[in-house]
Amino acid sequence: MNAPTRILVVFYSRSETTAEFAGRLAAELEGDYERLQEVELLRRAGPLGFLRSILDVVRKRPAPLQPMTHRLADYDVVLIGTPVWAGRASTPVSTWISERWRQMRTVAFFCTMGGRGSQDTFAQMQRLARCVPIATCAISARDMRQDVAVEKVARFVLAIKDALAARERVVVAR
Ligand SMILES: Cc1cc2nc3c(=O)[nH]c(=O)nc-3n(C[C@H](O)[C@H](O)[C@H](O)COP(=O)(O)O)c2cc1C
Predict the structure, then answer these.
(1) Ligand 1 center to residue 121 CA distance, Å?
(2) Residue 143 belongs to a domain
């Protein structure tokens, strides 16, 4: 019998929307959960923090991060979640992928947003991770407050499980 797939959900959240989605995913997939924290904890707070966040994305300035509590080597699949910032991944997430891409075998991406920018965000994450995600999921902050979130989580989880099962079949057939 195959060992269960070990899943880690890694995310950044400034105002808890992505955190909520990440929590639901980790629960559905029985995975672990790692919140990225910046060294400068208050950098994103308030209106000034909003402006700093836009500028950091536009200037591609990296965000120094606190050490992780989980070891990436212990996981088969990493789900990476970010809010969309100015049509891109949030600075903590782009920094983290740039630093860690070598340690990831299989990835899936998710993002939350006001309404637009998910495709560019996923394209950027794929470039930084240097690998194609097995599944992606984007949800607006408004839909997070409705039943759509339940449906989106279910569909994303199914897409991940299908992709992993298909990969397993290929390995067995070899
Ligand atoms: C600095 C900044 C830039 C943003 N840029 C976009 C954007 O380009 N497109 C969009 O749809 N939403 C944008 N948003 C809205 C967030 O993506 C959205 O509210 C998200 O769900 C917040 O996630 P969080 O609560 O996990 O931080 C931006 C928010 C911030 C703080």
Answers:
(1) 11
(2) yes
